[in-house]
Design goal:
Layout (H helix, E strand, L loop, with lengths): L7 E4 L5 H14 L5 E6 L4 H10 L4 E8 L4 E7 L17
Parallel strand pairs: 1-2
Antiparallel strand pairs: 2-4, 3-4
Length: 95
Amino acid sequence: MSLTTYGTQIDLRDIPARDRVALLFNTYRLLQSGQSMELLSDEDLAPLQTEFRLRQPAGFSWAPTEIGPVAWRVRVVRLSHREREVPCGGGCACV
């Protein structure tokens, strides 16, 4: 996987369900502000968006680029402190 500004692509169809969340958040932690990852799945990614909201409130943008019924594709961008709708208290790892 490449973590360039152009983004990392993760095909979740090839990842066992039990490993997906850990892989996504480990990858997200490696992103610098402004960098992105693209997620591809054969099922709705809404539950993962909820998980991101719980773990990274306001620290990311979520932009669906394909919405079923065969594939779901989303671009997740790590936001800087200035780009956030709700600023964090500075104690997080959001950079």
